[in-house]
Amino acid sequence: xxxxxxxxxxxxxxxxxxxxxxxxxxxxxxxxxxxxxxxxxxxxxxxxxxxxxxxxxxxxxxxxxxxxxxxxxxxxxxxxxxxxxxxxxxxxxxxxxxxxxxxxxxxxxxxxxxxxxxxxxxxxxxxxxxxxxxxxxxxxxxxxxxxxxxxxxxxxxxxxxxxxxxxxxxxxxxxxxxxxxxxxxxxxxxxxxxxxxxxxxxxxxxxxxxxxxxxxxxxxxxxxxxxxxxxxxxxxxxxxxxxxxxxxxxxxxxxxxxxxx
Length: 261
Known about the structure:
By secondary structure, the protein is of the alpha+beta class. The chain contains eight helices and ten strands.
């Protein structure tokens, strides 16, 4: 077997031998432990060498007798591989940029949809507004239920002609009795006040007490309304009226505003 036959190991590993040379080398490989060992060591790098064609392999064989040619060949192979890797890197980078652009657009769209307020995603349904149930209405800006919430119950607006105190009451019938939500304005201070339930049988019950600061509520000094809630076990049908009273230091009460039910 000639030296050239031994040099067929790399060509055989890369599969660049023709059919006749392949058969010849395999016959040689069966009896040459040196070529078999060399072939085994080349298995891990076959993938790296797969880019070398038959012409380059022939040139490599010739370099065994010409060291200068070997150096030139290695330089050429390395340069070719660098160019190939560079082209692959450019192609990969271009693909990443293109994908990143599309992904960025998609991500921006998702963010815009996620951050958009609900009325941007789905516009309000046109049509007649819902009719509030009996005894309810949307409160004004200075009344209970401010902010568009509807106050529950029957509404009663009263301004006392003597004291000038203005009141708005919402009376609600409950299983436990009666609940009342109310607001007061034009209520000067300082003073102590209380809310009294006057029943139809002439009995009374104090269901809430509070203090009024010097600036009062719903006044020029303090335009904020006083908004309170209270409850009684007395059913609505048994109530004649509610009365807001002012209590002096001696415990004597005087009416500020009376709200018939």
